[in-house]
């Protein structure tokens, strides 16, 4: 469960202070499917980064599963990210020199899992994401949809409690985009909290709960 | 992250950028090879000098009359004069010491040599037959003083003198005059050139008694002594000194020099020289280290997005540091190894080109070269690794 209260994040541009997040209060229960919409600069990506512990708020409290994670050290935050959070990006962020299987393997390597166990997990995951025949291809040899499937597989292989997607369909055409959205929704069906940041209205409307942001504040919150 | 995964992961990164990696390895290899080849050269020169000296004899002790010290024991010391001579009898006594295997008393002077109507001034050396083995001198024809006829008036001519007086080569048995005394030529020395300050090609050698009479002296110029074993040299030196003090009524008026001491000085100088060139080579390793740092820094900025991703999926800063450090270590290890091979090949080529120069790099130089290379690599990898770990994940992910 994600509980944000009074979260403020200020960026400085020259002598001007920009409130990317201005006293945001938001509670997201486990298993929810939330879309966050808003124009560029509304603070939606910053909100996602704060939720994903990539960015520290300047003030306010963030409880993740009842634990205040804003006070954790960088190493502790890294561990929380590893265990509880999966990221999916617009530009996939696959490591170009590694194959699909190797990209998916990275989170497993970080946990110190022995390589035989890793092999089994990867094989099962590739199967589940329908990527078995692409295992030994590098990202450059994969289509956009396949790349995003690899990225989602990497984000979910450690079964995080929350999956954070930042414009997951932004670099994909309409048909592939809705396939990827369906894949994310299927993961949400199995209990993973899904938070999607987008300015694609159609994608946002698929979510059961829709949050709209403007100027660092939550404008509407529909269920 | 387990260490073997870390090493595997970083190795894969290195092989993914072959040009970049090869350049770094080459720079490191050249540095290490420079250390090895330069020390091989320095140490080869040292060995060469040591060998040259050994051919004169490392078991050699030289006795000089008089004290070669600045102490004011007696005023004549500085001039090489002494109140008491070093005599032939002294030499015989020293020769009986158990540590001594051979000895040769020496008198040196200048005299006129005349034969077959020709005349020239020559350096004459009075000594005994043992001088030949002690000084590693050789005769090209004839012989000199078998102990049976120690006092006979025989003379050995230097190669050049023999050539000048008897160009037809018919030398043995010829009669010559040295000052006002007659000698029979019994031998000719082999061509040897300069050695210990004498050109033996322009030398004549006669028995010591004849030399002393001819030069009208009873004091030896030098006494050369060969010790049985190299290990006994200090012990022998002391025994010789004691013997001579006893024979000189308790007065310590001779100088006993181990030939070793001269050699040791040369060795020290050349060793310092080797260290010096090794130091210069180490600088080239440091330069290679800075190159590694440069390339690693470029690599960090090229892989910003990757570092951002690694952070996003929960890689602790420490692990990111290790990843980049491991890359630097791999690269410098590969460079050190390549340098080791290159350096050995270079020394081998040197030995091939100059067979008289034993250009083997000393073991310490091989170890030091590799160790410094790895150290330089690690130090050079440190800054990029720290920079990578410090990257802000949000900024890093924003870059493509």
UniProtKB/TrEMBL annotation, chain A:
Coiled coil: none annotated. One of its GO terms (biological process) is response to antibiotic. Signal peptide: none annotated. Residues 2-223 form the ABC transporter domain. GO terms for molecular function: ATP binding; ATP hydrolysis activity; transmembrane transporter activity. Keywords: Antibiotic resistance, ATP-binding, Cell membrane, Membrane, Nucleotide-binding, Transmembrane, Transmembrane helix, Transport. GO terms for cellular component: membrane protein complex; plasma membrane. CDD domains: ABC_MJ0796_LolCDE_FtsE (cd03255). The keyword Ribonucleoprotein does not apply. SMART domains: AAA. The keyword Transcription regulation does not apply. Belongs to the ABC transporter superfamily. Macrolide exporter (TC 3.A.1.122) family. This is Putative ABC transport system ATP-binding protein. The lineage of its organism: Bacteria, Pseudomonadati, Pseudomonadota, Betaproteobacteria, Nitrosomonadales.
Automatic annotation (TrEMBL), chain B:
Residues 280-393 form the ABC3 transporter permease C-terminal domain. Residues 21-242 form the MacB-like periplasmic core domain. Pfam families: FtsX, MacB_PCD. It comes from the Bacteria. One of its GO terms (molecular function) is transmembrane transporter activity. The chain crosses the membrane at residues 21-41, 273-298, 319-343, 363-383. It is found in: Cell membrane. The keyword Chloroplast does not apply. One of its GO terms (cellular component) is plasma membrane. The keyword S-adenosyl-L-methionine does not apply. Keywords: Cell membrane, Membrane, Transmembrane, Transmembrane helix. It is a multi-pass membrane protein. This is Putative ABC transport system permease protein.
């Amino acid at each position: 469960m994600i509980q944000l209260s009074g979260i403020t994040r200020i960026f400085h541009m020259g002598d001007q202070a920009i409130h990317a997040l201005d006293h945001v209060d938001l509670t997201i229960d486990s298993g929810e499917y939330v879309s966050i919409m808003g124009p560029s600069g509304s603070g939606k990506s910053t909100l996602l980064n704060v939720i994903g512990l990539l960015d520290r708020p300047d003030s306010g409290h963030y409880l993740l599963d009842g634990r205040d994670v804003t006070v954790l050290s960088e190493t502790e935050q890294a561990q929380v990210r590893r265990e509880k959070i999966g990221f999916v990006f617009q530009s996939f962020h696959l490591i170009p020199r590694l194959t699909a299987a190797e990209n998916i393997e990275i989170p497993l390597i970080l946990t110190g899992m022995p390589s035989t166990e890793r092999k089994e997990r990867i094989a099962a995951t590739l199967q589940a994401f329908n990527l078995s025949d692409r295992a030994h291809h590098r990202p450059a040899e994969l289509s956009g949809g396949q790349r995003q499937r690899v990225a989602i597989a990497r984000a979910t292989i450690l079964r995080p409690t929350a999956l954070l997607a930042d414009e997951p369909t932004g670099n994909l055409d309409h048909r592939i985009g809705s396939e990827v959205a369906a894949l994310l929704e299927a993961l949400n069906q199995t209990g993973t909290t899904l938070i999607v940041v987008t300015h694609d209205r159609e994608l946002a409307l698929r979510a059961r709960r829709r949050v709209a942001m403007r100027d660092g504040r939550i404008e509407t919150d529909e269920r | 992250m387990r260490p073997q995964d870390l090493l595997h992961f970083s190795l894969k990164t290195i092989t993914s950028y072959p040009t970049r990696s090869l350049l770094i390895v080459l720079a490191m290899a050249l540095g290490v090879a420079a250390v090895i080849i330069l020390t091989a050269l320095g140490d080869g020169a040292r060995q060469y000098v040591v060998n040259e000296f050994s051919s004169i004899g490392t078991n050699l002790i030289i006795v000089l009359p008089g004290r070669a010290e600045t102490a004011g024991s007696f005023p004549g010391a500085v001039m090489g004069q002494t109140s008491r001579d070093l005599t032939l009898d002294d030499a015989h006594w020293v020769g009986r010491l158990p540590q001594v295997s051979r000895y040769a008393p020496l008198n040196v002077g200048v005299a006129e040599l005349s034969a077959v109507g020709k005349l020239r001034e020559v350096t004459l050396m009075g000594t005994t037959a043992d001088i030949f083995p002690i000084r590693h001198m050789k005769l090209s024809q004839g012989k000199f003083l078998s102990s049976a006829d120690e006092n006979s008036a025989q003379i050995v001519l230097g190669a050049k003198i023999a050539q000048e007086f008897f160009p037809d080569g018919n030398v043995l048995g010829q009669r010559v005059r040295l000052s006002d005394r007659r000698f029979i030529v019994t031998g000719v020395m082999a061509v040897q050139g300069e050695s210990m300050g004498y050109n033996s090609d322009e030398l004549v050698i006669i028995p010591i008694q004849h030399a002393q009479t001819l030069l009208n002296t009873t004091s030896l110029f030098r006494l050369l002594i060969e010790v049985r074993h190299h290990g006994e040299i200090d012990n022998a030196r002391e025994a010789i000194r004691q013997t001579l003090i006893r024979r000189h009524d308790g007065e310590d008026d001779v100088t006993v020099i181990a030939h070793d001491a001269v050699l040791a000085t040369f060795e020290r100088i050349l060793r310092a020289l080797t260290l010096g060139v090794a130091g210069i080579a180490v600088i080239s390793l440091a330069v290679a280290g800075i190159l590694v740092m440069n390339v690693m820094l470029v690599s960090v900025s090229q892989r910003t997005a990757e570092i951002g991703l690694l952070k996003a999926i929960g890689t602790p800063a420490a692990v990111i540091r290790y990843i980049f450090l491991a890359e630097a270590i791999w690269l410098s290890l590969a460079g050190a190894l390549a340098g080791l091979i290159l350096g050995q090949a270079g020394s081998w080529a040197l030995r091939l080109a100059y067979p008289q120069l034993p250009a083997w790099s000393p073991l310490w130089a091989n170890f030091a070269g590799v160790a410094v290379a790895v150290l330089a690599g690690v130090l050079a990898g440190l800054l990029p690794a720290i920079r990578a770990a410090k990257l802000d994940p949000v900024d890093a992910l924003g870059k493509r």
